[in-house]
Design goal:
12 strands, binds 3-isopropylmalic acid, binds magnesium ion, Isopropylmalate Dehydrogenase, alpha/beta
């Protein structure tokens, strides 16, 4: 089998810098573990809007579909023109087009790296990624937001049995591999009785198939407080799209910084590495952006590819990359300025590569 084809999409703002750094680390991992990674590139975001009239065109989606894995840089989609003028959100578009239903977002404190959390913790959020309150992807035709009159705006939240079942199954299957083997379903079924009631029904059905896993349910507002007070009492969190979006930023920040928060968008056939943070246009081009979250996301992608292709070298490479990232972050001299260090984006990537080779 030839090595995996990895499609790199720069995105906007700091995207080209952190995708470049991530590519360098992936290339080093490829050499070190004989992975034979094949890199491909395509243009999305503002650069594509200028050239093709849309921030992500059909050819890029087709390229993503045939790639083995994707690395997506952050996008400035909040600043894009309306969809009718080509301003598609590349992140949502790819999540939907490739059916990347699980957004897997680990957050853990690291030895040697200061964190706002008052105690060490290690958790993973499994966020549903294809429906919920996401107006750009929750309807078959048309957006899930509209204005019945000039002074009223409405948003639809879609919760389907199938999507709830899939995210719960992914979360439980992962929890079964972790020592704590504990799943918390996060919801707001006291108010959203029907939709979050459906979500909980599916979580409970999956829980019944995993008697060895401790299962509990927590309201999303209470969960925000729990995460600040006692993050160590959570292991795998399964939740709907927008709750997961919000809680994962909280968990990432508690672990040290949102700038460290990695994520993998995974489906049955495709996976896309994507940092949780945005495109930070204020520091774009300065060479100081922190590439840690995207490097961590790319490590998750290698592990996913290792499992999918039954290729232990890819799994080992993913783990080695994550460990090398931890080592680089433990050293104040190799941290970027957002973490109080003086390393450049490339300097941080070089430190990760050196740790991986050492
Ligand atoms: C994320 C982001 C995106 C989301 C935005 C950019 C649409 O916040 O990946 O967490 O809400 O999914
Ligand atoms: Mg977010």
């Amino acid at each position: 089998m030839t090595g995996p084809a990895i499609l790199l999409l720069d995105g906007d703002g700091i995207g080209p810098e952190i995708v470049g750094a991530t590519r360098a680390v992936l290339a080093a991992a490829s050499d070190r573990f004989a992975l034979d990674l094949r890199f491909q590139t395509a243009t999305i975001g503002f650069a594509a809007l200028d050239a093709t009239g849309t921030t992500i065109d059909a050819a890029v989606i087709a390229q993503a579909r045939v790639a083995d894995g994707i690395v997506l840089g952050p996008v400035s989609h909040n600043a894009y023109p309306p969809v009718a003028e080509g301003g598609l959100n590349p992140s949502g578009t790819l999540r939907r087009a490739l059916d990347l239903f699980a957004n897997i977002r680990p957050a853990a404190t690291r030895t040697g790296l200061p964190a706002p959390a008052t105690m060490p913790f290690d958790l993973v959020i499994f966020r549903e990624n294809t429906e919920g309150f996401y107006a750009d992807r929750n309807l078959h035709l048309g957006p899930g937001e509209f204005m019945p009159d000039a002074d009223t705006a409405m948003a639809l939240r879609k919760i389907s049995r199938r999507a709830c079942r899939r995210i719960a199954e992914a979360g439980f299957a992962h929890a079964a591999t972790r020592p704590a083997a504990h799943v918390t379903a996060v919801h707001k079924a006291n108010v959203l009785r029907v939709s979050d009631g459906l979500f909980l029904e599916e979580c409970r059905a999956v829980a019944a198939a995993y008697p060895a896993i401790r299962y509990e349910e927590v309201l999303v507002d209470a969960m925000a407080a729990h995460l600040v007070r006692n993050p160590a009492c959570h292991d795998v969190i399964v939740t709907t799209n927008m709750f997961g979006d919000i809680l994962s930023d909280l968990a990432g920040e508690l672990s040290g910084s949102l700038g460290l928060a990695a994520s993998l968008n995974a489906g049955s056939d495709h996976a896309m590495a994507q940092a949780q943070h945005g495109s930070a246009p204020d520091i774009a081009g300065a060479g100081v952006a922190n590439p840690a979250a995207l490097i961590g996301s790319a490590a998750m992608l290698l592990e996913w590819l290792g499992a999918r292709r039954s290729a232990p070298a890819l799994t080992r490479a993913g783990r080695a990359m994550a460990a090398a990232l931890d080592a680089a972050l433990a050293n104040p001299a190799t941290r970027t300025p957002d973490l109080g260090g003086r390393a450049s984006t490339d300097g941080m990537a070089r430190a990760v590569i050196a740790a991986m080779q050492g």
